[in-house]
Amino acid sequence: MGDGRNWRVLVINPGSTSTKIGLFEGDRSVFEKTVDHDAAELATFPGISDQLPYRRATIMQTLSENDVDLESIDAFVGRGGGLLPLAGGTYAIDKVLLDHARRGANGVQHPAQLGSQIAHELACEAGGKPAFVVNPPDTDELCDEARMTGVEGVYRHVHLHALNLKETAIRHAESLGRSYDDCKFVVCHIGGGISVSAHDHGRMIDGNDIVGGEGPMTPTRSGSLPLVEVLNYLDDGHTTSEVRLLTLKRGGFVSLCGTSDAREVIARAESGDAVAHRAWDSMAYQTCKWIGAMACALGGGVDGILLGGGMVHNSALVDAIRNRCSWIAPVSAYPGEFELEAMAAGARRVLDGSESARSYTGEPAWSGFSS
After folding, report:
1. DSSP type of residue 85
2. C-alpha to C-alpha distances, 350 to 9, 18, 206, 292, 353, nearest whole angstrom
3. What is the predicted pLDDT for the residue at 3?
4. Which whole number is the average pLDDT over 66-85?
5. What is the widest separation between alpha-carbon atoms in the chain?
6. CA 313 to CA 308: how far, in whole Å?
7. Neighbours of 328 (CB within 10 A)
8. What is the pLDDT at residue 220?
């Protein structure tokens, strides 16, 4: 095993037609690779979990070609998926977690649910090494007030880029010489989707539901919409299926500018395209509004506003957010994504003893109010 500072951790992050894998030694990346899968081959499998043997074989081939010996690995981490709402943290992969991942207990079929299954199989092959998932997509730590709506029986749920959001907050706290559990942050992930979240002493107590249609517009999502206008849109002959597509795939820049490519929208805006300029500025404006809302959810005293995700590479966007929001707290940019690094870091914290591995109970973090 590693010496406590240089744990060797292999991470597996399945996507729709590829799987990202990475080997980390301590906090240093030794090897990272995107393993492409044949889309036609994947289409022959009736369900996501049925892809497991095929994906595992292609991953094993890549590891062999790059001289990665499974027995040299101290721990394995898979992207979580298919789980019921749960508190954030690093979870040991056990029978209950595997069962929920295999069948997609949350009702969503997504390649992420293969992560824990592949990690478990590789850990077993390596001689029974530890296997984990870290801050899965179903992380839910909402406070009670954040769950409420003004309609009896209708409650808010949360779907956010939890892995990147939490890791960004943990890293920024460390840069301040503090613990994540001692800080209050507004943390954003600004990429193909936009998450804006409130982190209160180690818990993500509020945030927009990016799957449920909340938050700022994004390259492919409509963001929050006035309910009456949506009803009028349906009355005009549009279907609920069309509205769902606008919510998840055909809204935002796609609807307004005909493209999901943020770089194209920026270029058009800079060349004088008024439609693109208005769409880009509105996305930034709406993001700032949600940052303000999350600051209020924290009750003020915010230690920092943290920006991550691919679009944060755009300095003009960072400046726009800083100009509107720096009166709340200092704005810090962490461009890009570091999902693989975040997964490895979660395992290292458990291996080092600085964090305890959680056990997945199979019960949702919240299933209604008792009274």
Report:
1. P
2. 12, 28, 26, 34, 5
3. 52
4. 95
5. 66
6. 9
7. 19
8. 95
Q: pTM higher than 0.90, yes or no? A: yes
Domains of the chain plus CATH, in order, are: 8-138+340-352 (3.30.420.40), 144-337 (3.30.420.40)
The amino acid present at 341, given as its one-letter code, is: E
Count of all residues that appear for the chain in the document: 371
Written as six digits, the tokens of 157 are 């749920």
d(CA 323, CA 102): 46
* Owner of token pair 């721990």: 75
In this structure, the strands spanning 90-92 and 75-78 are: unpaired
Task: Please give the structure tokens belonging to residue 11.
Answer: 């991470």
pLDDT-derived band at 130 (thresholds 50, 70, 90) equals: very high
Question: Of 201, 367, 154, 189, which Cα lies nearest the Cα of 291?
Answer: 189
Query: CA nearest 33: which of 68, 3, 57?
Result: 68
Residues contacting residue 99 through CB under 8 Å, at least 6 positions apart: 105, 362
Q: d(Cα 208, Cα 254) in Å, to the nearest integer? A: 20
How confident is the model at residue 16, as a pLDDT?
85
Average pLDDT rounded to a whole number, residues 235-254: 96
Q: Work out the angle between the directed axes of helices 315-325 and 274-297 (0-180°, nearest 10).
A: 50
According to DSSP, the residues that pair with 29 across neighbouring strands are: 24
DSSP-assigned states of every residue in 294-329: HHHHTTS---EEEEEEGGGG-HHHHHHHHHHHTTTS
Q: Quick check: 1 pLDDT over 80?
A: no
